Model the fold of this input.
Amino acid sequence: MPLSTLNEEQLSAATAPMGNNLIIASAGTGKTSTIVGRIGHLLHNGYDPSKILLLTFTNKAAGEMLARVGRYFPSNVVKKIESGTFHAVSYRWLKEMDAKVTLKQPGELKTLFRSVYEKRHIKRLNLDTEAFSATYLYEQYSLYQNASLDGFDVWFLERYPDHKPLIDIYMNIIDEFEETKDKYGFVSFNDLLLKMKQYLEENDRDLIEVLVDEYQDTNTLQSALIDSMKPNSLFCVGDYDQSIYAFNGANIQNIATFGSRYSAATVFTLDKNYRSSASILSLANKVIEINERIYPKKLVVTKTGKNQPPKLLMYNELFDQYQSIAKTIKKTYTPTKEIAVIFRNNASADGIEASLRELGIPSKRKGGNSFFEAKEVKFLLDVCSLMVNPKDMMAFIHIFEYGKGIGTALAKEMFECFIHFGEGHLFVGMMNPRVFNLPKLNPNKNLQLGLFDDDSEIGSITRFSHMNLDEKIRSHPILKHPKLTADGVEFFKMYHEFARSVNTIKQPQSLLIKLINSPLYQFLVEQLSNQRGKLKSGEIDNDKKNLAKERIARKARLLSDLASHYNETERFVNAMVLGGNELSEGDGVNLLSIHASKGLEFLEVYVVDLMDGRFPNTKLMGKGGSLDEERRLFYVAVTRAKERLYLSFAKADRVKKLDFKPSPFLYEAGLLKR
Done:
């Protein structure tokens, strides 16, 4: 039984009576062992495993926990336990109910939102208040879905009352966005939870117990979803001192008010730390205790042996800091996989990464610039997605908006045209059109719309007679579109030729290799590398451009390698969408944002750029953050270290001609005297 390995506090929590139980599990106190013990306790007492639900924030975490349970119980029993992230479980349950859902990534839906937004000419209204951009409005709408159960207009105007003259237009954009999603069956990650919550409010799932890991990171929507499940028993594990996702909608009040929201709630506290040395824990305690205490606690040291005090590293110049840390790592005997450099700002990671590479030290970066969010990777996946699902309008828009003179609004119109030409079939309309007249693209006139003012305005195909086009392209009815330029036709030609060349390819890796070597993808590579190689003067730095091409090629090779594990393109695309954010690249020193470091531990940790303004990050604090949250971020960063902790700061940035003051956290930790 997994209970045999637990200490007294863990055992008390794991064997708690059925009911509403909250376990405050501080850093390194064995929360995973406690959850595993709890599941073992339920199974040992004969509870039906199919009525146990384990909710985590990564599918990997759920898999590891159940693997540990599997050491003590038969696999056919453990497999019956429902587990995964809030989104993965909701997606699976919705599929079980035969719900028609096509899951789309936030970036793809942002593109759709922008295509709807761009049809309005908001700036022509000449209002005193400048309208938010499409991207910012989309982000606020997404945050609202996670953070509030009120109407968007109510929530939004509480935050931005000066935008009241624009709220009707904003709501109109959101309404059309939602209608378009419904039309094509698109759902966001938020929609999965909203649809699941709505279903569970009307239907009983009959759950014995719901276990929630990292409860402090739940948002208002996730908390409401848990309540809609109506479990007989609730077992939530978390630590309010590690609540660091407020920017993403996490609501610390979920854990703070647990006792008042749930009847007969019991709170357990795990305070024996098995990870860090006494001096590291002492530093962490000193700083975090300055925050208001929601539940009283203090970490207790269990680790014995050599105790190296945390070391403060001070440098005169910013880049000297990065180079010196790289040299220190070069000299250490600690394996690179056991070393982490933790940063608050992405710019910090760039300097460290460059310094490590200069010394030939391998590194891998997690947090900040995700591999799967890179434009070149998203393009490859979108092309694959469209091959699998020709009704995927978002994939089409995301591909065609890269064509010069096209953009999101025209790309959406082109998609609708191809569907029309093919009598409902995209690739028929693209490759062998059956209908040759343009569809009516603006059936309902609207002064805000930026489509055709007059649907009879049709362009002449002869305007492209100077271009080198084969007969298939030259006679295609899309060339009648009045907004289509020669550059747009050239992009369509490249896609048309690629699509023709892969008509019989089924293997995802073969498809990707063909795509990577095609003129279509090379056009994108040239475009992106030019953007990334451009200097402030507007000139192209060839060294920067070539480096950008190398990085793009490396990402393409990695995606191709990932595809080799799949025989079907559809399975490959689905795996990348649901699991993409959990994959990492290569081995070496771990370069981690604080958020990405959460839950991990390393023998040797460097927390860099501890300057006032950078950490704590005053810019983000001004956008709704707080000093308390920045302090929690510091607490998370330093408690990743098991044996050696280095805290560093620089006095100046020579390039930007800035002077820095030390972070207040260094004073609170007792490393500097005021």
